[in-house]
Amino acid sequence: MPAKKKILGVPQVNELVKPTVQALLSLGGSGNIQEINDKVYDLTKLPEEILNIPHSKDGRTQIDYRLAWARTRLRLQGLLENSSRGVWTLTNPNINIDDLDIDENQKKFDRNRRTTTDKLKDLPIDETFANSVEGADDENADWKEILIKKLYTIRPDSFERLAQQMLRESGFIQVEVTGKTGDGGIDGKGIVRISGFLSFHVIFQCKRYKGSITPSQVRDFRGAMQGRTDKGIFITTGTFTRDARKEATREGAFPIDLIDGNLLCDKLKELELGVKTELVEHVVIENGWFDLL
Length: 293
Prior knowledge:
Distance between the termini: 43 Å
Order of helices and strands: HEHHHEEHHHHEEEEHEEHEHH
CATH topology of the largest domain: Arc Repressor Mutant, subunit A
CATH class of the largest domain: Mainly Alpha
Shape: globular
Largest sheet: 5 strands, mixed
Strand content: 15-25%
Structural class: alpha/beta
Radius of gyration: 21 Å
Number of domains: 2
Strand order of the largest sheet: 4-5-6-8-10
CATH architecture of the largest domain: Orthogonal Bundle
């Protein structure tokens, strides 16, 4: 495995193992990825310019990419488990952070990585490290990296139609792509129904972006929403800065839901829009069974 690139200011995976456990302890022993990551940001006190360094191959930031590796390492060591709903939980909620031996954790991880390839097949694709090595060739790259690259190649109006179809498949009705010039960045609108009788008007904006969306861009979108909708959705192939996420949920302002490149890939996979999951049969010979004959 090639050595990880050192990016000035971004902690290495080993340096993020303990903060990840600390984050989960402070969250009561469990949390989703965004909750865990936000808590790690607070614990490490990393500056915004470091938090916003993009990962070169997908819609995540460098720090989020390495935090995914940290969770994977902890999972393979039996210290973390995750549900199909994306919630990560400490297997021992009373774990003592001082008992974590990072060097030994690295050694065990390396041994498991070499000898337990079957375990990799059970990992959520979001977290698997099987093909997510920095510098890997495209043919071996993480599926999200490949998908994001593909999304960069389609026309802007095709990306808007993809967002339209994704919302429709998610249960939205009357979804239209507007894409009018000078419309404040609004690309479409629709209606979301909850429990079959509550409905909310939604306006969405699509931005194929390799960088990070800033708070000012979120504010501009909110300004275009005023008086026209109940809620907004900002969809991008890139990421949102931490301040942009705070701006989206600012108290007293119109709420805006954010879909970054990582979540966009997950939704396209879930809805099978251009992404197909193939199950591979794995045959195991039970030698002990024959010994009992």
